[in-house]
Specification:
This protein is of the alpha+beta class. It folds into three domains: 54 residues, Beta Barrel (OB fold (Dihydrolipoamide Acetyltransferase, E2P)); 78 residues, Nucleic acid-binding proteins (OB fold (Dihydrolipoamide Acetyltransferase, E2P), Beta Barrel), CATH 2.40.50; 79 residues, Ribosomal Protein S8, Chain: A, domain 1 (2-Layer Sandwich). 18% of the residues lie in helices and 34% in strands. It has four helices and 17 strands. A hairpin with a 5-residue loop joins strand 10 and strand 11.
């Protein structure tokens, strides 16, 4: 195997990252002959013969099954428009928002979700030819009350969640906050005190800034124990 970079090296579009031999490509890399080339400005990673570049910035592209946190922008007769980030507007039909039958003559969608409400939803349909269709008709989804919203790059969401939820659960443990993470790069934090919420926010920002650093989980845990992210 001929890998030309070290793990966590920063790369730019068109940069050669490996050549010869056969590697599995996960994302962010394309192949030209026997050469493997970066598509993005990002962090180079190699995992047991698989190569990828994790972009340092970029917009959200919906995927069926993704949990997202959106802001209701308009309440219509039988549906809502929801800002989910990126170039698309989420569409939430009344039939996908409540288990009860919705009568548009007698009912008022604004009594369920009003413009400006933050909601946790799931992408149920999307094919790039039309805006993604959402549902809140599942356990754990629906209106988010109180708390604060944080926007991060969607590219760092998996790192903020961590393997099997390890990172976000660590932050929850030391801050006593409820935290909901949307794959669209929006995070909701609700704690019993402002100080707890700000500590959780500081931890999330540090993960975003240092996502490429080895031993990040231990570093974040140490800072949470000290309740200090100034270092």
């Amino acid at each position: 195997m001929t890998i030309l970079l070290n793990k966590n090296d920063i790369v730019v579009p068109g940069q050669l990252v490996a050549e010869n031999d056969d590697y599995k490509i996960e994302s962010g890399i394309y192949k030209e002959g026997d050469k493997y080339v970066s598509q993005y400005v990002g962090v180079f990673l190699e995992r047991k013969g698989s190569l990828l570049v994790r972009p340092l910035n970029g917009g959200y592209i919906p995927k069926v099954g993704d949990t997202v946190i959106g802001i209701v922008s308009d309440a219509l007769l039988t549906s809502w428009k929801v800002q989910v980030g990126g170039p698309y507007i989420g569409i939430l039909l009344a039939s996908n928002a409540t288990e009860r039958d919705f009568d548009p003559i007698r009912g008022d969608t604004r009594k369920i979700f009003a413009a400006g409400d933050a909601i946790k939803a799931e992408i149920m349909k999307f094919d790039r030819t039309r805006d993604p269709q959402l549902t809140t008709n599942k356990r754990g989804l629906g209106k988010l009350v109180g708390g604060r919203l944080v926007d991060v790059s969607p590219n760092f969401i998996k790192r903020i969640i961590g393997r099997k939820g390890s990172m976000v659960n660590l932050i929850k443990k030391y801050t006593n906050c409820e935290i909901s993470v949307g794959y669209n790069g929006r995070i909701w934090i609700s704690g019993s005190t402002v100080e707890d919420e700000l500590l959780a926010l500081s931890a999330i920002r540090r993960v975003e800034e240092e996502s490429h650093i080895e031993g990040l989980t231990k570093r974040i845990e140490d800072m949470l124990k000290k309740r200090n992210f100034d270092a």
